[in-house]
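This part of the workshop introduces the protein records we will be handling. The structure tokens are whole numbers drawn from a learned vocabulary of backbone shapes. The record below serves as our worked example for the rest of this section.

===
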Amino acid sequence: MRIHRLEISAFGPFAGTEEIDFDRLSAHGLFLLNGPTGAGKTSVLDAICYALYGSVPGARQDGKRLRSDHADPAAEPRVTCEFTARGRRFEVSRTPAWDKPSARGRNGFTTQQAKTLLRERVAGAWVEKSGRNDEAGAEITALLGMDREQFTRVVLLPQGDFAAFLRSKASDRLELLQKLFGTERFEAVERELAVQAAGATREVADLEGRLDLLVERARAEATALEVDPDAAPESAGGPGLLSWLEAAALERAAALAGDAEACEAQRRGCTERLEAELAREGRRVKLAAALRRRADAEAAAPGLTSAGAALDLHRRAELLGGQLKAVTAAEALFARAEGAMDLASAGVREAASCSSELAGMERGAVVEHGSVDVAAELSRLRALAAVIGERLADEDRLGGLQARAAGLALRRQELIRAGDDHADRLLSLRTDLEALRAALQPLEQLAGESVLRTKEAAAADELVDVVRRYGIAAAGCAAVTDRHLKGREHHQELRRQWLDVREERLSNAAAELASRLEDGAPCPVCGSPEHPEPVPAGDTVLGLAEKEERAKERSEAAERALSALETELSEARQLVAVLASQGGDTDPAEAEEAARAAREAAAEAAAAVADLAASRSRQEELAERIDATEQVRVDMLSQLAQTESALTEIEGQSAALESSLEALRAGHASLGLRSDAVGQVVSILEQADAARSQLDQAAERLADARSELDRALPEAGFASAAEARQALLPGAEAARLESAVKAGRDEEIRLEELFASEELVVAAKEQAAMEHDSGSAVTAADLDLLRTEAEQAARAAKDVELAAGMARQSVTTLGRLRAEYQELAESGREPRERADVLKGLAEAARGSGDNSYRMSLNAYVLAARLEQVAIAASERLVAMSDGRYTLQHSDARAARNAKSGLGLEVVDEWTGRRRDTSTLSGGESFMASLSLALGLADVVQQEAGGVDIETLFVDEGFGSLDEQALEQVMDALEGLRDGGRVVGLVSHVGEMKQRIGSQLQVVKQRNGSTVHIVDALVTV
């Protein structure tokens, strides 16, 4: 990669636009980058790094502020770098995020986002490749074959870091080497091996736990069988113990099985004896119960005979039951009919004396002549009731017509009054509408100007606010300007004082250095322990350094304060300019007066708008009310005409209907009342007629029932009806007697069958034999004793059988556990071997275990890289040290069991001995660290894919070299130019300025730094 051109605008200390032609600088292959402290030499390297990777190296990136504080507030920061990589030419331009002044932005600024533009030169023209930050960065990284960290170590050689790297302990070199070579993957391998080893160890531990669990389960099974696991042979391990326990359990199960057979035989004998005695006792009890039943049946026989005779008479009397009941029912019905006839006759007589409807009926006609006169009167009254019922609807219609006539008369009066009211209201509404129309025209003209007057008032108020803010901003800007002038003068004075003290101290630097020399101590410049002619120090030499430091701190503090004031002044001026452009310089009194007049005019127009809207709404409301009132008045006149016509028609219909109904009422207030009176008389006559019919029927029925009973009595064997009724029994008593007789007969049959059964026959024989032998029956105590013996034998047999079953199950379980143990132990052989291998690998990769050098895998890889770096560095150190020194990697084991592998030693070819790098002098350390940096750059370049690095920058450190060493170092650096490589040196050493004709000078000024290219012929 070769850099051709760099353009810097408003970046870092560079306020303007600075362009650096690296092709011109590299004409001699070696150029010098110099300038005073703080001028911006490092910022040039930062600009290159930012253009390529979008960030600056190291801690400077954390500051976030890349835009120059010296630049104009509106100047855009930008870095453009033109370079060649892999035979292709590119140009990349980057702009960091910055705050651009804006009148509408927050606090007067608008944040501009970072921008990137990557172009490639193709066929003589620039072709855009990407405009995205991330995309362009990824493409540049791929082109260069390096990320930012590798670029800053390979192209921008940090010599100071490598001086510390050279003198550091072996363990401290790990961090830098790991960043450069990216060996994190080997650390990941170490972690992965540790994780796998831990997982394999956990798997083996889990396997051992499962095996131990199987053994414990087997011991528990054996203990439950009263087999002592501790009695096993001491030499029996896991499988042997399980086999021994299985054999012992099998022996115990066989013993328990024999005990179970013996207990079962004893149980069967006890059970058989108990069942035989229980059967004999049951037959004896059944025989005794049967004898008692037969005795009870013999005692109840006479009563059953008497019950049978009474039941026979009852059954013969039941044959006459229908006739007896018929006579009794007929007599009761006749008595009720006579009573009903007496009540009906009394009702007819009372109605004849009181009702005008029976006025033509002779007194006592119903009693003397039966029902003939009642039937004729009933026929007449029923016909009259039918006529009255048909005319009841006419009477209801007459009432409705009369009610409608009264309502229509009332409605006619209401319509007449309402028509007069609406006529008066309509006249009043029309008068109000004419007056409102006359007042609308002036309001419409004033309301039309409302929008314009409102905008004018808002603009006038805004102008007043702008004028007020302009006054405040102008006063603030004047105050800031005054403070800025005073701050700048104060800063210039303090800076002048600091530069004066610095110049004085530099002129006395030799005396200050001489004042710190001690006899026997090496000189920090030449390293000699002898000091033959030190420069005498003045009285104030020792205090100049402290004085300079204090002056510098005061100057820097004043500079920071001035920078803050400049920012504040810029913001204040910008605010004043923005407000002035908005009319803020208008006279405040004129602005206030114009605003007041505009507000009054706007208020007047707004009031007119409100009044106009209200008036138009009132106009519409009046028009709607007039239309509604006229419509209502027309409707009422129409309704009045309809009402009068209907009233005349209804009055005529009512008069005709009233004359036709008057004769039919017969003096009653209404047809309904006369209908009720006729209905009451009809009901009384109907009751009398029904009572006479019922009395005749009851007499006939009674005669028929008595005749039927008289014919049936002789056939049933009874002399009279009274005798038959006496023989009848109540239903419950008859049922009881019949049930008792039937039960007695059934009991006789059952007793015969019972005494003929085989069981009672055997019982009778057993009782006869016992009486013949004078023996006694088995007692309850004997049965309880047999029952207890049988239960005890059954429980014992059950317990022993259960124990034998559990023993058989335990034998099966122990066999299964032994098989599982063997299978699990066999399957665990491979995990154990794998765990041992992984554990050994993890420990070796971690630097422990059999790793005698205590080197981790990561350290081992870095040690190989460090060995390559030492070889590459030695090639340059040999030239710089006139063949005396070389660097050599050391993997010697560190003391106190510390980690090893990253040791670095220097070999002195003059003595042939190796020694620690910390024993080198100042100049020798510089040469060694520079060689180490260059060697590391070569190795990292190879690691990055063999990318050609045609432009290098080497940082400070040349001041520690004497003339001869400087000559040798320069020769070595010039050797870097071979093959077209360009090397830029960053140095303050005066002799370097004389030796190197091509230079890039950074000049520091009060308003920002600038760059100039100086060569042997022309100064630009």
